[in-house]
Specification:
By secondary structure, the protein is mainly beta. The chain has one domain (5-177): Deoxyuridine triphosphatase (dUTPase) (Deoxyuridine 5'-Triphosphate Nucleotidohydrolase, Chain A). Helix content is 12%, strand content 35%. The protein has helices at residues 5-13, 57-67, 109-112, and strands at residues 18-20, 33-44, 68-72, 79-81, 86-96, 101-107, 116-117, 124-125, 130-139, 145-147, 152-160. The strands form two sheets. Strands 1, 2, 3, 5, 6, 7, 8, 9 and 11 form a nine-stranded antiparallel β-sheet that branches. Strands 4-10 form a two-stranded antiparallel sheet. The longest helix has 11 residues, at 57-67. It is globular and about 50 Å long.
Length: 194
């Protein structure tokens, strides 16, 4: 059962859910809060590398760091996402969740109708999360899309767990993206080898 707007506001007032900076009133929905886009992105520079070997996780991170370029966008400029392209971005807001609440990230329908996907698979925000939220942008449309810092980009809703988790994200051994500040490349190399 998801939290209503009333319950979200209470959880924020009690300090259970942290969102910094707190979005304005018009960003609050009946059971979610819209978050905004930060000014940093990561994009693939595919001109020097023919492929990524997903079966060799140790090389993926090293390659990801070499394959991905950091892009900073000024407040009055835009980041252009071309059709068929993938880019990483982050929310401007830092989100902190207790060990009793999971967050659910959704794209905004109005942006999806123009071809913008804001997550490919990572829509769960773990209990115990603390950091900016990575957005996995994909343009499935036919026109380039201008993404501007500060625009409302996604919605975050919240669901209470039946009991506190024994493995909150930031306390979990091997938490690859704990305290995330900015878009990070894949850290699949930190997965335990099976």
């Amino acid at each position: 059962m998801k939290l209503s707007d009333v319950d979200i506001e209470r959880a924020i007032e009690r300090g259970e859910i942290g969102i910094d900076p707190l979005p304005p009133e018009e960003s609050k929905g009946s059971f979610s809060i819209d978050l905004t886009l930060a000014d940093r992105f990561r994009v693939f520079d595919h001109s020097q590398h023919p492929f990524i070997d997903l079966a060799n996780s140790r090389s993926v991170y090293a390659m990801s760091e070499k394959l991905m370029l950091d892009v900073a966008v000024k407040p009055d400029e835009a980041f252009y996402l071309h059709p068929g392209e993938l880019a990483l971005g982050v929310t401007r807001e830092r989100v902190r969740l207790p060990d009793t609440i999971v967050g659910w990230l959704d794209g905004r329908s109005s942006l999806a109708r123009l071809g913008l996907m804001v997550h490919i698979t990572a829509h769960t925000i773990d209990p115990g999360w603390d950091g900016q939220i990575t957005l996995e942008f994909y343009n499935s449309g036919r026109f380039p899309l201008a993404l501007r810092p500060g625009m409302r980009i996604c919605a975050l809703s919240f669901e209470p767990l039946s009991s506190p988790t024994s493995r909150p994200y930031t306390a979990k051994k091997g938490a690859k993206y704990a305290n995330q500040d900015g878009p990070l490349a894949s850290r699949i190399d930190r997965d335990k080898d099976e």
